[in-house]
Amino acid sequence: MRRTVGLVMVFVLISKITGFLREVAIAGTFGASLLADVYKSSMIVPGMVVSLFTVGLNASLIPILSSAERNNKREEFFQNFLSIVTFLSLVALLIIILFTGPITKLFVPGFEADKLAMTVKYTRIIAIIAPLQVLAYTIIAWLQQKERFYIAAFVGIPMNIIIIAGALLNRSGNLTIIAAATIVGYLAQFLWVFYPYWKTKPVINLKPTLSDPYLRMFWIMIIPILLTIAAGQINVLVDIALASSLGDGVVSNMDYANRVNMMFQSVLVLSLSSVLFTKQSKLSSADNKREVFQITKQNLSVLLIMMVPIALGTMFLSKEIMTILFVRGRYTLEAAAIGGSILFFYAPTIVTRAMMEMFGKLYFSLHMPKK
């Protein structure tokens, strides 16, 4: 297991490095400006849909797949589930396109009329990434449950490379070019995970049913998660709504700082918890709770030894980190000072998010989602 975690961590690190280069390229092209705010804000609505689906989906689906596997029902359940998720994601896309105006205005009420109109326009264009991400992460859960961690760990690399290329070639700062690159990047991410799934020659279910007992188990698992995620999303939306009235560049600077903050969780925490969660779920299905607690305790100890110093270092070097990572092109030292101040207050959540991730996965593996 340690070897798998180590390799996954290396692959995730490569993916996150390219993800950082993507943000650096975007910051260099647009800086912390009106156009950067429009681009970042146009990702909010599709991003919310993706978060509601994918975070809860991953945590709930893997334990259900493990349970179905014991009764040789895994593939039958997954084909039914994938058909239902495909339909729901397309409905979500339609809702975003039809109600983009009022939804966007709700999230960024401080934007002036022209800035808001641009955000609405590009939200409609970028909305297609929502179903692509939902389907990709559904398949990722299936791959992880089958212990094919490396494909999932590499998933962000094709997308990042394409968006980086779009930003670097976009010297004029044209939002349409970066929006197109974003869509192509997310399509590449979907194809990256879809190809190994398609190679298994799945039997596509064209007549999904809601009476599947494992589907009922999934809904029982995911409803508490959706409530928790919704609360977290409200927190984020309040931040963005307040920031939208503070002038051009503030929304994008918050996003840049948050990307830095989330890097450590993505590289260290998610790579560890993804491998650990599959082990926890299979041990729990075998009713071996003693071993579940033991491996969780060991990995949590290792994680905290790494995360506490990282959080402290990020707090006290926040402005330097933002300067080194982002100051180039149209991103200035003044913007880095503001971004560093934001990062200082984000940094303590590096530890708390790590603990939440570990304990959350433990409870999901034990089929105790209400915790």
Care to describe what's here?
- The chain is an all-alpha fold and 371 residues long.
- The protein is 82% helix and 0% strand.
- It contains 16 helices and no strands.
- The longest helix is centred in the last third of the chain and has 36 residues, at 250-285.
- The model has no long low-confidence stretch (mean pLDDT 81).
**Helices and strands: which structural class?**
mainly alpha
Low-confidence stretches: none
Rg calculated over all Cα atoms: 21 Å
Q: Give the tally of β-strands.
A: 0
Q: What oligomerization state is this entry in?
A: single chain
Terminal CA distance reads: 27 Å
Properties at a glance:
single chain; about 375 residues; mainly alpha; about 0% strand
How do the strands and helices of this protein lay out in sequence?
Elements: H1 2-30, H2 34-42, H3 44-70, H4 74-98, H5 100-107, H6 113-126, H7 129-145, H8 149-153, H9 156-168, H10 175-198, H11 213-243, H12 250-285, H13 289-316, H14 318-326, H15 333-346, H16 349-365
Helix pairs in contact: 1-9, 1-12, 2-6, 2-12, 3-4, 3-7, 3-11, 3-12, 3-16, 4-7, 5-6, 7-10, 9-10, 12-13, 12-15, 12-16, 13-16, 14-15
